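Good day; I would like, with your permission, to put a structural problem before you. I would ask you to consider whether the tokens describe a fold that such a sequence might reasonably adopt. The full record is reproduced below for your convenience:
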Amino acid sequence: MAISITETAAGHVARQLADRGRGLGIRVGITTTGCSGMAYVLEYADQLEEGDQVFEAHGVKIVVDPKSLVYIDGTEMDFVKQGLNEGFEFRNPNVKGECGCGESFSV
């Protein structure tokens, strides 16, 4: 099981961590919410919890708890800019459906 990050996303995370002045990496998880059932949660990872899986790419660590990894295994995390909007985008091969606004998904 694994999750990957593009060079662009890793650069963005590295800059955020540097500005913050601390942190092991970024924690990627899943929460139940929205009309399709699940949504991604991102937060700084300051410490590892029991069972966490750590993936490293382009000098950045991605921390995922075991419950979330089941739903996001094989996902590629990217950072995109479109006009005035920018944010993380997830390419998750497990997704079976998404809500109309794109904020939640189902597997």
The longest strand covers residues 25-33.
